[in-house]
Specification:
Layout (H helix, E strand, L loop, with lengths): L1 H12 L12 E4 L1 H4 L5 E6 L5 E5 L2 E5 L4 E4 L9 E5 L2 E6 L2 E7 L5 E5 L14 E6 L5 E5 L3 E5 L2 E5 L7 E5 L2 E5 L5 E5 L2 E4 L11 E7 L2 E6 L4 E4 L4 E3 L5 H7 L1 E8 L2 E6 L4 E5 L5 E4 L10 E7 L2 E6 L2 E6 L4 E5 L8 E7 L2 E6 L2 E6 L2 E4 L7 E7 L2 E6 L2 E5 L4 E5 L6 E4 L6 E6 L2 E7 L5 E6 L8 E6 L2 E6 L3 E7 L7 E5 L13 E5 L2 E6 L2 E6 L4 E4 L10 E5 L4 E4 L7 E4 L5 E4 L2 H6 L7 E3 L4 E6 L2 E6 H9 L6 E6 L4 E2 L6 E3 L6 E7 L7 E7 L4 E5 L3 E5 L4 E10 L9 E7 L7 H87 L7 H15 L2 H14 L3 H8 L5 H11 L4 H8 L3 H14 L8 H7 L1
Parallel strand pairs: 59-65
Antiparallel strand pairs: 1-28, 2-3, 3-4, 4-5, 6-7, 7-8, 8-9, 10-11, 11-12, 12-13, 14-15, 15-16, 16-17, 18-19, 19-20, 20-21, 22-23, 23-24, 24-25, 26-27, 27-28, 29-56, 30-31, 31-32, 32-33, 34-35, 35-36, 36-37, 38-39, 39-40, 40-41, 42-43, 43-44, 44-45, 46-47, 47-48, 48-49, 50-51, 51-52, 52-53, ...
Helix pairs in contact: 6-7, 6-8, 6-11, 10-13, 11-12
């Protein structure tokens, strides 16, 4: 164990100095991003900020959102590129020409080599393209210079290797490899005077500074030439350029020069302060070989041997990044004795010049660095220490110094949260620190703040928060610990505490609460209601620093009254550490932010100046529907409805790094949203005319001027004019058919009504006839009944007379006379005329009764038929007897016999049978 400790101490004592600097953010584009070749030989930018790169695989085009690789017809390597006006000129192997955009923003190539007359290429590659002041374009190979003007090409064939050229003092100056400089006059080369120092030195690049020609050589640094004399450049950086093989030079403005090297990346040199910064692999570049470079509006583009990089010069946020892993994750920063100290998970470090050095003995996890009473105290996982550049002296052995705060109203007295409760720190008059553990609370305390000198709030990482009262004035023990579990109280997990303008403020699960001392309750904190799901990093009397949720990681600098600044620097957003980020304000103009692999320095005035700069207006690139792409240059852009289910509009603000956009769609359906990329998609838009307005969104949610695109989604076929004409024709046809149908229906109804009327009339006539017949039948029935009754009465009277005669037979003296009377009476009873009349009337009512009866029962006699007729008339036996001239008994006997003939059962009613027959 002692051996391992010795090895660990030896390791930290022997840590190498980390020579990293605070640098502007570097945005790298890898091979997988731009999908081209490795080497990027030359770079050019148009006025909109679109990038063109001469790449091993062809011409790369970057509009700020999307990379496009454009290949030459012969697929050769492109060595040079230059944007001039609306053309992009490129040079390749025995080939040069220009590219222009079509209506869709795609580049098409036009060769110029066919214009060369009386000249043969000698395996030439064109390494440089130069726009001359006279409007011509010059292409340089190592053997010749080709000038393109007015659709003609002239060739200059100097007798030396051409390594560079430039226009200086209205002269075309050509670098002849290692043999010096020449002026080309009317196709002839004239050596410049007094340039013997360049003999044997290969000239790589030239630029003009302060009226002099700065000449860069491959291995011998830079020289200054004023037109008459040549002198070595005396800048301190010249030695580094000799050592690391200078390749390219560019002017960066404000006295800055940029030097691209083969071995050590990019040098940024301030000619005023003589200070330099190095952008190389150790500081974030993908490799150290800079093949090309270009400055465009504070953006430095670097074409590397493998990859492309973009650096924002004069960025308000600069970064220190530890690529070695030695520093680790930074948890706290402090400014002490003119030096910046860093506390990380590996120990304490400080800057000595540009070198980051380790404080010996500080290895371990550092939670807090704080300048207290003139001492720099370090809250460490093994205790609390007093730190200087050369010492790490233990002040307290209580493990885990999370946070230390001053006791209000007390002199040199502080309370610290630790792994096992709280500790009191008091600085004595002799400069020593007295540390005592505060009794009554032994849980870990990560955050704490005072409500009053006697009331302390503490937060446990997992068990919640407590309001504690000190016992007495010695701050050595608690006599009351208050917890809050009422309805609406914050969750207990990972609560953060703050004393903001004498108000205890809590953050729990993204929500803000405050303590109400009058109600003794925790309530919602309305002042921070717009900052839910945001962590408070730092605050002073006026401003607050919030960090946005984990998806965006933007920092908001606000005074809660409308003065708000949104910091959305991409490297900052990518490297903030959730729940561990911290802002340390050193003075009114400088703040530091801890990062996962270093820290960021913010220049507050410069940041506010950047936000006030004019934002670029984004450009529309192309519009895609589901089937094809459309040119945004069209005056009337119409999209077929069948292809409009998904519409994507590509926009770009090429000159802005990682732009956000604000767009507003006006039309039948409206949208208004922010977008983090340049591909805006709309789904299932209804047909109609639309206006899309797009603007670039800045750091403070400010927006640029709008660019406008109008397009129309044509109606579906069933809503087209042709369809409307068809609908109208169909409508007319339907109306005609309906009218025709109605007329036919009306005619049919009329006929039906006529037939119905006829039928009703016929029925009425039939009814009348039936009623008349019924009346006649009834009349006949009455007549028949009357006749029958008359006959019955007559016969009944005759029978009475006969009976009287029979009873008084002896009173007749003459028997002959008696017999004569009896015979006449019998004859009257059996009068056939009466029956004939009855039969006629009966047949009129029941015309086929006798026929049907005889047909069914042939054995019936006329007397039987007569009885049947009387029974059908529903006459009683008593009424039938006189009609037949027999007695009632005779009628019953006759009925009995008739029943037998009709084969009727005794239970059946004879009269009913005959009535219904």
């Amino acid at each position: 164990m002692l051996f391992r400790l010795f090895i660990l101490l030896f390791y930290f004592a022997c840590l190498p100095l980390i020579g990293q600097q605070l640098l502007p953010p570097i945005q790298n584009y890898q091979l997988l991003d731009y999908k081209g070749g490795t080497k990027n030989w030359d770079i050019s930018v148009n006025e909109k900020g679109e990038l063109f790169v001469a790449n091993n695989k062809g011409l790369l085009h970057f509009n700020g959102e999307e990379w496009t690789l454009n290949k030459l017809p012969n697929n050769t390597i492109i060595r040079s590129v230059e944007n001039i006006g609306d053309r992009v000129y490129t040079g390749s192997y025995e080939e040069f020409g220009y590219w222009t955009k079509n209506e869709f923003g795609e580049l098409g190539y036009t060769s110029l080599t066919h214009l060369i007359k009386d000249h043969t290429f000698t395996s030439e590659e064109f390494w440089e393209i130069f726009p001359s002041k006279d409007g011509s374009v010059m292409f340089r190979s190592f053997s010749s210079i080709y000038t393109y003007s007015n659709d003609q090409i002239t060739v200059i064939d100097p007798p030396y290797v051409v390594s560079d050229f430039i226009e200086f003092n209205n002269k075309l100056v050509v670098a002849a490899g290692s043999t010096g400089l020449y002026e080309v006059v009317e196709g002839k080369s004239v050596p410049l005077p007094n340039q013997e120092l360049l003999n044997g030195k290969t000239v790589n690049d030239m630029t003009i500074i302060e009226g002099q020609l700065l000449i860069g050589t491959k291995l011998h640094g830079c020289f200054l030439y004023d037109g008459t004399s040549l002198t070595p450049w005396s800048a301190p950086i010249n030695e580094a350029l000799k050592q690391h093989q200078l390749n390219k030079i560019t002017l960066l403005g404000n006295g800055l020069l940029g030097f691209g090297t083969i071995k050590n990346g990019m040098y940024l040199y301030d000619t005023t302060s003589k200070q330099q910064k190095i952008l190389n692999r150790e500081s974030g570049l993908q490799n150290n070989t800079v093949l090309s470079l270009l400055l465009f509006k504070n953006q430095l583009w670097l074409g590397l041997d493998n990859g492309i990089a973009r650096v924002r010069i004069n960025n308000p946020i600069s970064y220190y990044t530890d690529y070695t892993g030695t520093l680790g994750m930074v948890y706290s920063i402090a400014w002490y004795n003119g030096k910046l100290f860093l506390g990380s998970n590996t120990g304490v470090f400080y800057f000595e010049g540009n070198q980051l050095q380790f404080v010996n003995g500080s290895q371990g996890h550092v939670w807090d660095l704080r300048v207290v009473e003139g001492d720099l105290l370090c809250g460490h996982n093994t205790g609390t220490y007093k730190v200087t550049e050369d010492s790490f002296e233990q002040v307290s052995d209580i493990a885990g110094g999370y946070q230390m705060i001053k006791v209000p109203g007390q002199t040199a007295t502080y309370v610290q949260g630790t792994y096992n409760g709280l500790a009191k720190f008091q600085k004595l008059e002799n400069g020593q620190w007295q540390v005592d553990k505060i009794q009554g609370f032994d849980a870990p305390v990560k955050q704490l703040c005072f409500e009053t000198p006697e009331v302390l709030w503490v937060a446990h990482p997992y068990k919640g928060f407590y309001r504690m009262n000190f016992k007495g004035t010695g701050y050595g023990e608690f006599d009351e610990i208050q917890e809050f579990d009422h309805e609406g109280a914050p969750s207990e997990y990972n609560v953060k505490l703050y004393n903001i303008k004498n108000t205890i403020v809590l953050n729990s699960e993204g929500n803000w609460f405050a303590y109400n001392p009058i109600a003794d309750r925790i309530e919602k904190f309305d002042a921070f209601k717009d900052y839910n799901n945001k962590e408070l990093l730092f605050f002073d009397e006026e401003y607050f620093w919030f960090v946005n949720d984990e998806n965006h990681k933007a920092i908001i600098h606000t005074n809660l009254k409308g003065d708000s600044l949104l910091v959305t620097d991409l490297p900052l957003r990518e490297r903030l550490a959730p729940d561990s980020q911290k802002v340390v304000q050193v003075n009114d103009s400088t703040s530091y932010i801890t990062l996962t692999d270093g820290f960021a320095k913010i220049n507050d005035p410069r940041l506010k100046q950047i936000t006030s700069e004019e934002l670029p207006v984004p450009q529309f690139v192309v519009l895609y529907d589901e089937e094809q792409k459309h040119s945004v240059l069209e005056e009337s852009l119409e999209i077929p409805f069948r292809h409009s289910e998904s519409i994507t509009i590509e926009v770009a603000a090429s000159e802005y790094i990682s732009p956000n956009y604000y767009y507003r769609l006006e039309g039948p359906k409206e949208y208004s949203e922010y977008s983090e990329n340049g591909f805006i998609n709309f789904q299932n838009l209804p047909f109609g005319a639309y206006t899309l307005k797009i603007a670039t969104s800045g750091m403070e949610n400010s927006i640029s001027d709008f660019n406008t695109l109008q397009f129309t989604i044509s109606p579906p076929w069933y809503f087209s004019w042709g369809s409307f004409v068809l609908y109208a024709a169909l409508g007319v046809l339907v109306i005609y058919l309906v009218r025709r149908y109605n007329r036919r229906k009306l005619e049919r109804k009329r006929r039906e009504l006529e037939e119905q009327l006829k039928q009703e009339q016929h029925e009425r006539m039939e009814k009348l006839e039936k009623e008349e017949l019924a009346n006649q039948v009834k009349l006949k029935q009455n007549e028949l009944a009357s006749t029958t009754l008359n006959i019955a009465r007559k016969n009944e009277m005759i029978l009475e007379l006969k009976n009287m005669l029979v009873m008084n037979k002896e009173k007749f003296s003459n028997s002959q006379r008696y017999r004569s009377f009896i015979k006449k009476l019998n004859s009257s009873i059996e009068d056939t005329e009466d029956w004939r009349r009855f039969e006629v009337n009966f047949k009129e009512l029941h015309e086929d009764f006798f026929e049907r009866l005889l047909k069914s029962f042939p054995s019936l006699t006329p007397k039987d038929l007569k009885l049947c007729a009387y029974l059908k008339m529903n006459l009683t036996t008593k009424e039938i007897a006189p009609l037949m001239g027999i007695t009632v008994r005779g009628v019953e006997i006759h009925r009995y016999r008739l029943r037998k003939k009709l084969d009727m059962d005794s239970s059946e009613n004879l009269s009913n049978f005959l009535i219904t027959f």
